[in-house]
Design brief:
2 strands; 356 residues; mainly alpha; globular; binds zinc ion
Length: 356
C-alpha cells in the first residue's frame, strides 16, 4: 500500500470511530431531550418502552441499528417507536463526523473539533427541547456556554504556544463582538420592540384599554365612571391572562451569545441570517395554514406537553406569545448555527467580495 492509501484507511477508521461515538452520544441526547424538561434523572432510570413499560434489553440499545433491526417496534409489545430517536442519533453521528472531516485533527488538533462536537450536541438538545416545550433547559445552555468558553481558551492557548498554527483564525476580539452581535439585537427585538408593537399596534385589548383610560380622564358622571371602571377591569383581566408578549425568548438570546463566542462575528451573523430566513418562511406557512384552518373552522392543534410540565426543571422560555400563534424559533437558529460551524466566515466573505 502506498502512503496515501494508508493515510486514507487510517482516516476512514477514525471517521467510523467518530460516527459510532456520535451515535452513542446522540442516544444520550435523546434521553436529555426526553427527561430534562420533565425534571427526571438522566442516569437513574433505565430506558423503557413508552407503551408497555418493559425495560429495553442492552442488546436492543445499540444506537441507530437497534431501531432498524426491530423495524421501529418494541420487542415486547410491538408498539411503534418513534423514528425520531434513530434520526437524532444519526444526525449527531453525521454532524460529529463532518466536524472531524472539516476540522482535520492534523491541522486543528483534537481539542478544537471535540469542543465543536460537544457544542453542537448541546445545540441539538436545546433545539429539540424548544420544539417540544417552547423552552430550553438552563443547565444545557450553561453547558453550551462552557463548551464555547473551553473552545475559545483552547484556540487562544494553541495560538499563544505556537503548538498548532491554525486552530481557528478567529481572534478574541472577533469572538467577543460575535457574542453580542446577534444576542443584543435579539434581546432588543424580543423584549423591547415586539412588546411595544404588540401593545401599540396589534393588540385590540390594549387599544380598548387606552380608550377607556382616556374616557376615565375626562369628566364623567359617577354612574358612567363606574361602568368604564368595570370595563377597564375586564380588559385588564384579559391582558393579564394572556401574559406579556415577547418576540424571542431568553433561550434564543443565550444560544446566539454562545454561538457568537464560539464562531466569531461573521459566522454568527450568517447563522442568524439563515435562521431568520428559514423561521420567517416557516412562520408565513403556518400562518397561512392557520388562516385556512380558521376558515374551515377546524380546531387548531394546541401546543403539546407544555401543560404537563408543572414541576419541570428550570428552563428559559423561548416564546410567550399566545399559544395559538407561537412557534419554536430555536430549531431554525440551530440550523443556522450548524451551517455556520461548517462554512465559517466563507458566506460573509463571499457576500462582501460581491459588493467589491
Ligand atoms: Zn413495549
Amino acid at each position: 500500500m502506498s502512503p496515501s492509501t494508508v493515510e486514507m484507511v487510517a482516516n476512514l477508521i477514525i471517521y467510523i470511530f467518530i460516527f459510532a461515538a456520535g451515535a452513542v452520544i446522540g442516544s444520550f441526547l435523546n434521553v436529555c431531550i426526553l427527561r430534562l424538561p420533565r425534571g427526571e434523572s438522566l442516569v437513574k432510570q433505565n430506558s423503557h418502552c413508552m407503551t408497555c413499560g418493559a425495560y429495553i434489553k442492552h442488546y436492543d440499545l445499540i444506537p441507530i441499528f437497534s431501531w432498524l433491526i426491530l423495524r421501529g417496534k418494541c420487542r415486547n409489545c410491538g408498539a411503534k417507536i418513534s423514528p425520531r430517536y434513530m434520526l437524532i442519533e444519526t444526525l449527531t453521528a453525521v454532524l460529529f463526523t463532518c466536524v472531524f472531516i472539516k476540522y482535520d485533527t492534523a491541522a486543528y488538533g483534537f481539542l478544537f473539533p471535540m469542543f465543536a462536537c460537544l457544542f453542537l450536541a448541546a445545540v441539538i438538545v436545546v433545539c429539540f427541547e424548544d420544539l417540544d416545550t417552547k423552552s430550553m433547559s438552563i443547565s444545557v445552555l450553561l453547558w453550551m456556554g462552557a463548551f464555547a468558553i473551553g473552545e475559545t481558551l483552547t484556540a487562544l492557548f494553541a495560538r499563544q504556544s505556537g503548538y498548532i498554527e491554525s486552530v481557528t483564525r478567529i481572534s478574541l476580539t472577533d469572538r467577543i463582538i460575535g457574542m453580542f452581535a446577534v444576542s443584543v439585537p435579539l434581546l432588543l427585538i424580543g423584549f423591547v420592540i415586539t412588546p411595544l408593537i404588540y401593545v401599540y399596534v396589534i393588540s385590540d385589548d390594549h387599544k380598548e384599554r387606552r380608550k377607556l383610560l382616556k374616557r376615565l380622564s375626562s369628566n364623567l358622571a359617577p354612574y358612567d365612571e363606574n361602568r368604564v371602571k368595570s370595563a377597564l377591569a375586564k380588559v385588564d383581566e384579559r391582558i393579564k391572562e394572556q401574559g406579556p408578549v415577547y418576540g424571542f425568548g431568553m433561550g434564543d438570546v443565550v444560544l446566539m451569545a454562545a454561538a457568537g463566542l464560539m464562531l466569531g462575528v461573521k459566522a454568527v451573523v450568517t447563522a442568524a441570517f439563515i435562521g431568520i430566513v428559514l423561521g420567517g418562511i416557516y412562520g408565513i406557512i403556518i400562518k397561512s395554514k392557520g388562516e385556512k384552518a380558521e376558515e374551515t373552522a377546524e380546531p387548531i392543534e394546541s401546543a403539546p406537553i407544555a401543560s404537563e410540565l408543572s414541576d419541570s426543571a428550570p428552563a428559559l422560555p423561548t416564546s410567550s406569545s399566545p399559544a395559538s400563534d407561537r412557534f419554536a424559533f430555536g430549531p431554525f437558529l440551530g440550523i443556522g448555527i450548524v451551517t455556520a460551524v461548517y462554512v465559517g466566515n466563507a458566506v460573509w466573505d463571499w457576500y462582501f467580495s460581491l459588493l467589491g
